[in-house]
């Protein structure tokens, strides 16, 4: 099997091809064909049964925030799982988790029976890196797909951001900007994935720290068809408004009240706080960031 060097690909990919040409030329045709098929499969997503996935026994992380897991689970029910897990094939219908235990746990909570996954075989790190770099060079990738590929290279190929930039011929700031997209709420990531908003819009939204403000800006951008420049102006306005914060710390709520709180947050598309006192009394707090946002909430309340 002989590789032809291509122009326009990352310097890292060329180096990988140089390293493998001599090895590939000495291998039997059947073995080379098998590896070619494997390289192609590494760039695809499979749907596997959750019951067939075994948690990696060498996973250093042992504790997971239950509230955060429940929030991710609720998001998965609404948006689906955007970022697949990565597993290693350990036998027939048997997989070992490589990365994504939090996503796996949340998917179980959401009641999923199958989960999207990248399936790897043993000792295929070099081919994985090659497949990812080739995938990143595709012109039709959206920004979320690029960000996911970058994250996989960091997680699974043990690269630092500087090394990743060298592999894909991009500077570190560009790599960082893509990776930051994965910190946005799933609803916004889905809009980027579906080309409803651009990376420029997403970068503007990232100027807001609070999730409720990000979701509000996201709604305004889509509903009003704002340009990137107008989106940046909107973000500056939101930053100057601020949301009045309560001086007293809210008491923790039970799982039942937390579920109600999350359902209300989904209904109003903004953060909702449920405050419950020991005598059963309490209050529901729904913040808004502008008069338009208040009008939207009042309409949902049939006011």
TrEMBL record:
Keywords: Chromosome partition, DNA-binding. Residues 46-136 form the ParB-like N-terminal domain. It holds the Pfam family ParB_C. It comes from the Bacteria. InterPro entries: Chromosome_partition/occlusion, HTH_ParB/Spo0J, ParB/RepB/Spo0J, ParB/Sulfiredoxin_sf, ParB_dimer_C, ParB_N. Gene3D superfamilies: 1.10.10.2830, 3.90.1530.30. Belongs to the ParB family. This is ParB/RepB/Spo0J family partition protein.
């Amino acid at each position: 099997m002989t590789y032809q060097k291509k122009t326009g690909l990352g310097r890292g990919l060329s180096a990988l091809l140089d390293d493998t040409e001599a090895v590939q030329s000495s291998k039997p045709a059947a073995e080379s064909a098998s590896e070619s098929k494997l390289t192609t499969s590494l760039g695809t997503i499979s749907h596997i049964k959750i019951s067939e996935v075994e948690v990696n026994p060498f996973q250093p992380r042992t504790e997971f925030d239950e509230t955060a897991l429940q929030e991710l689970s609720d998001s998965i029910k609404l948006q689906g799982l955007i970022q697949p897990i990565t597993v290693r094939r350990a036998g027939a219908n048997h997989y070992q988790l490589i990365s994504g235990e939090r996503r796996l746990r949340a998917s179980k909570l959401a009641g999923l029976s199958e989960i999207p996954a990248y399936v790897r075989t043993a000792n295929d790190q070099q081919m994985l890196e090659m497949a990812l770099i080739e995938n990143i060079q595709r012109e039709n990738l959206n920004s979320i797909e690029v960000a996911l590929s970058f994250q996989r290279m960091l997680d699974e190929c043990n690269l630092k951001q500087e090394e990743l930039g060298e592999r894909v011929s991009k500077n570190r700031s560009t790599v960082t900007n893509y990776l930051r997209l994965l910190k946005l709420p799933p609803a916004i990531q889905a809009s980027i994935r579906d080309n409803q908003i651009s990376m420029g819009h997403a970068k503007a939204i990232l100027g807001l720290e609070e999730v409720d403000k990000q979701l509000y800006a996201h709604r305004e951008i889509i509903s009003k068809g704002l340009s990137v420049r107008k989106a940046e102006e909107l973000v500056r306005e939101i930053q100057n408004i601020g949301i009045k914060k309560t001086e007293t710390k809210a008491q923790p709520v039970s799982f039942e009240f937390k579920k109600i709180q999350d359902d209300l947050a989904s209904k109003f598309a903004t953060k909702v706080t449920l405050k419950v006192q020991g005598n059963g009394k309490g209050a529901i707090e729904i913040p808004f960031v502008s008069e338009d946002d208040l009008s939207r909430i009042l309409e949902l309340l049939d006011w």
